[in-house]
Write a structure and sequence with these properties.
By secondary structure, this protein is α/β, with parallel strands linked by helices. Helices cover 33% and strands 21% of the residues. The protein is built from eight helices and seven strands, in the order ααββββαβααβααβα. Strands 3-2-1-4-5-7-6 form a seven-stranded mixed beta sheet, with helices on both faces.
Length: 268
């Protein structure tokens, strides 16, 4: 009937996990997983703490946070999929301020509400926690195939491939500082292990052609101003405002100016 819409029964992220895991089991997916493991192992040396959370168990045995100095790495996935925690990325069943790192494994690519997913990650992260985002790069051969075959509605080509600068804007709204961002996997999206092995040497061109890599890895750190410093800053402003009103109409020449300590908001 006219005017009636078909409503999807579940979030896209929940629906996409099983098909994405099947795709990562292919020759192309396994080649990407191998490269991704190497890329992340050298980037998380500055992450230390008790525990971290990986969103999505697309490759059994692949722990995106394995290179970090964490005592425990937890994996969250959709119900019926192997994971430590089952739930939805839009409403994480995790207590606030408990994770030193959160890793998004194609989470934003297959999420109806990416802003809500980022807010949930921000909620569970500690004050100086890190957010690691893995996604498909729209400015690549993967992005071209996505544009040509998205109408088939088959994972992963039916996802939403967001540009890195757009995600950086979203993170800046949440007061995150991007530590590094790089694209990887120069080889084309061909599902042939023999061809991919022959083209493995292309990965050596990443320093020059990294911008067109099929996937990107982005790291961002949460920046939170401690409440004690915030209160001191507000008290300083109130004191200065009161003093300025008191001196209205008086001459200020010859009087020493008040000195206010600058608050360093940089993460230490």
């Amino acid at each position: 009937m006219k005017g009636i819409r078909t409503v999807r029964q579940g979030p896209v992220w929940l629906d996409a996990q099983a098909p994405l895991a099947q795709w990562y089991a292919t020759g192309l997916g396994q080649s990407i997983a191998e490269r991704l493991e190497v890329e992340l192992s050298s980037r998380l040396g500055d992450v230390f703490g008790y525990q971290g959370l990986q969103i999505g168990n697309l490759v059994p045995g692949l722990h995106l946070l394995a290179g970090a100095g964490l005592q425990r790495n937890l994996i969250l996935d959709a119900p019926d999929n192997p994971a430590d925690i089952h739930g939805d990325v839009l409403s994480l069943p995790v207590a606030s301020d408990t994770m030193k790192a959160v890793a998004f494994f194609h989470t934003l690519d297959f999420c109806d509400h990416p802003h809500q997913a980022l807010r949930e990650a921000d909620r569970v992260l500690t004050e100086d926690g890190q957010l690691i985002i893995v996604g498909f790069n729209p400015y690549s051969a993967f992005g071209a195939r996505h544009a040509l075959t998205a109408w088939r509605r088959r994972e992963p080509w039916n996802g939403r491939f967001y540009a890195r600068h757009r995600i950086s804007d979203w993170l800046s709204v949440l007061d995150y500082r991007v530590l590094d961002s790089t694209a990887m996997f120069i080889r084309p999206p061909i599902n042939s292990e023999r061809v991919l092995r022959r083209l493995r040497r292309l990965e050596a061109l990443q320093p020059w052609l990294g911008g067109v890599g099929g996937l990107y890895v982005m790291r961002a750190r949460k920046q939170t101003l401690p409440m004690t410093l915030m209160r001191q800053w507000r008290q300083s402003r109130a004191t200065l405002s009161a003093a300025s009103f008191a001196r209205t109409g008086e001459k200020t020449s010859g009087r020493p100016r008040a000195t206010v300590a600058r608050i360093d908001t940089r993460t230490r």
